Amino acid sequence: MVTRKLVPVLLTFAAVILLLDAGWAVSARLFGWYHGRGIFFLSLATYLAAGFVAFDCGGRLLSAVAGAVVSIVDNSLGTLITWLILPAPVAGRLPPIPELAPMFAESVLVALVLGFVGGLLAAVRHHRQERRRLST
Predict the structure, then answer these.
(1) Secondary structure class of 33 (helix, strand, coil)
(2) Using an 8 Å Cβ cutoff, are 10 and 69 in contact?
(3) How many CB atoms are closer than 10 A to CB 89?
(4) Cα gap 90→79, rounded to integer Å
(5) What is the model's pTM?
(6) 52-84, pLDDT tens digit by residue?
(7) Are 46 and 70 in contact (CB under 8 A)?
């Protein structure tokens, strides 16, 4: 069950990841950068941040779900945006599903774990704040 608090978090981080994809693709096109390396780490940080923020919506499970949902948006719409902007070697040709499915599943799994880790980090932060509040 998705809580009402989680929907704005998901929409915000989905917009962030799509803006990152579009911005990175435009800058890669303008400056001739390799697209894959830089955006990879930004995507991982976004999945982690989504999990961290989503912890307040319902705990570690929803944190993992948030990371996975942002990854699904990144791997579907983000990839489409990138393919529309960049003259990549795969432009105009969609790879066959058997090639895409394992990469997609791996990315979603990594994002699920990163979302969960973000939730754990948020739980640690919450626990420390609670201890400080009780000790004063």
Answers:
(1) coil
(2) yes
(3) 7
(4) 11
(5) 0.79
(6) 888 888 887 888 888 888 988 988 888 888 888
(7) yes
